[in-house]
Amino acid sequence: IIEKEGSLTDEEFKIIKAHTIIGYKFAFESMKLKNNIAVVALQHHEAFDGTGYPKRLRGKDISEYARIAAIVDNFSSLCEERAYRDKMTEYNAMKELLSLGMAKFDPLFLRAFLLRMSMYPVGSLVKLGDGRIALVISPNKDKPLRPNIRIIVNQNGEVPKDVEVIDLSRNVDVYISAMLKPSELGFNLLDVL
């Protein structure tokens, strides 16, 4: 069923949703895990706003471990190839988690996850909305989408002579439009640093 390319029927979706109950029973009864651990299998598809399954639990009625696992499970799933969609880059998967975030996930755990994962890891290359290319030099713990960057290619497509560092948390007119691979630069990054 998970390899199906089209939409799931109601019956197929019921079968998919049953994996939480089967997983819980297996973890608790067969593996003899403590309930507070086994319940993660049962609740990892519950949503913070109560729209999840199997019991439509809401907020803190969901185990802390399951609230953490829900974030990790979603992130991992988004980064994997599926029959019905291409896999996402880690960056796009994190953006997707953010867009779902306030409703689906515990906001405190989501924030902690994103801060640990870093939307833009140090050393990442990013393209700015104005066409410049920059190197991420440090994250911003309060605003994970607004790291500190160093411009390495200006708007004319040239390597600037002077070092320009921008704190995106303070410079709201500058924004990241895409992540780049080093091979997309056309030159060796080490030559300009």
Between the first and last Cα atoms, what is the distance in angstroms? 50 Å
Major sheet, described briefly? 5 strands, antiparallel
Overall 3D geometry?
elongated
Strand content: 5-15%
If you average the pLDDT, what whole number results?
90
Taking Cα atoms only, what radius of gyration do you get, to the nearest Å? 21 Å
Strand order, main sheet: write it out.
4-3-2-1-5
Derived structural class: alpha+beta
Low-pLDDT stretches: none
Order of helices and strands: HHHHHHEEEEE
Strand elements, count: 5
Q: What is the overall number of helices?
A: 6
Q: Helical content, roughly?
A: 25-40%
Could you characterize what this model shows?
With 193 residues, the protein is α+β, with helices and mostly antiparallel strands. It has helices at residues 10-17, 19-30, 35-43, 64-78, 90-104, 107-117; strands spanning 125-128, 133-138, 148-153, 165-167, 176-180. It has a five-stranded antiparallel sheet with strand order 4-3-2-1-5, with no helix packed on it. α2 runs antiparallel to α3. It starts with 9 loop residues before the first helix and ends in a 13-residue tail after the last strand.
Task: Please write out the topology.
Blueprint: H1 10-17, H2 19-30, H3 35-43, H4 64-78, H5 90-104, H6 107-117, E1 125-128, E2 133-138, E3 148-153, E4 165-167, E5 176-180
Helix pairs in contact: 2-3, 3-4, 4-5
Brief overview:
This protein has six helices and five strands. By secondary structure, the chain is of the alpha+beta class.
Tags for this model:
five-stranded antiparallel sheet, 193 residues, elongated, alpha+beta
